[in-house]
Amino acid sequence: MPPSATPTEPCVPGRTAAPRARGAPRRRIALLVAGLVTIAAIAPPTRAQDSVYHEQKHTSRSTTLGVTGVLIGGLAGLGIASSQSPPSYSIAVVGAVIGGAVGVFLGKQYDELHAAQYHGVRPITVHTTDAELEGDPAALAAHDSVVAVGGSEGVQLFISASSLVPHGTRAEGLLGIATVDIAPQSMWLTIGASHGLYVFPPERGRGSLVREGSDAAVVSAPDRVFAASGDRVIELPVDADSVAPWPGLDLGAPVRALALDSAGPVLWAVTDKQLIALRPGRDSIVQLGAAPIDGAARRVAVARGRVAVAVGEKGVRVFDGSDPASPRATHVWTVARFAYDVSLEGERMFVAAGPEGVYLAEFHGKNLATVGLARGLGFASAIVSRDGYTYLLDRRTNHLRRILSDLEVR
Questions:
Q1: Do 358 and 373 form a contact (C-beta atoms < 8 A)?
Q2: Rounded Cα–Cα distance for residues 183 and 189 (Å)
Q3: What are phi and psi of 79, to 5 degrees?
Q4: What is the value of pTM for the model shown?
């Protein structure tokens, strides 16, 4: 063989070695790049782990995943095309189109989920003190470091100290408990059940039936109890021991909830249409004023002359009740998908929003600003704020949870 000649591989019939040798590296490179792009696209961003989130910094995933899908689909198609003889690069185009469509679809699903979770509100981290509940909890009340949870297993009591300490169960065997309250200072327990209104002395002792029929709401003063049944609100002594024709007032519509502003004193009642201010007396209840409510009221809370009404899918309506003869609407809050309950503590408002968790909002002068959303609290169905703590019922895991009302939000 002449020195300048180049050796050649023997030719074997039916074998095409060179094209295979060139195609294999291409396919390996394409698969490697596609794998890296896939990992980059699927791996969650570090910011998702932050406890403070601002919606305006969220990047739309429909665009990001759409571009990623085009790259993955195109590279995969190119790898397949290069293995064919002759190469059919139209496969790469088809792969890019399909990959892009899939990426956009997945991105939209992610964006919709994100929007449903936060509604433009940053998530906040809360530290809770929890206590496990028996049965099916339905009602919540708190006064003077005592918390009462009413449900299918009676009324479970807890002392709110360094932890939530179980303090026994009252009214075991009483069916259909729908509402409960604790009288401040005197600590009498009032229970509204499907068959009547009952009062129980502090600590121990048998309860007394004081009114027959179901009750939608009860609220207590140290020596008085107010209850709503149908259209009527009645008043009776906290230590009543028998059924009697207690004095009251017919409001002309079913009463959904009650709240007592002891500073007045003013009793606030809500129906499907109105917020009504009442003045309780020893032998009568007098209506002072009213304001319309746009929505079916579920719960009402009052503090410092401010009245908040949870109205379900229409959010929360806030009123200035400093003049009970003329309550005035001041704020409409509609961030939650459904407001099950509301509580007030200082300049803060807490909203129990079911599966979403608990929203925190703050009053700043004439403005009401949503601070954040605490998720991971289960199904927040009832909430009450007392003496620096906010208590809520988690009906998903049957837990009573306590958080600091002045929790720091960073």
A1: yes
A2: 6
A3: -65, -40
A4: 0.73
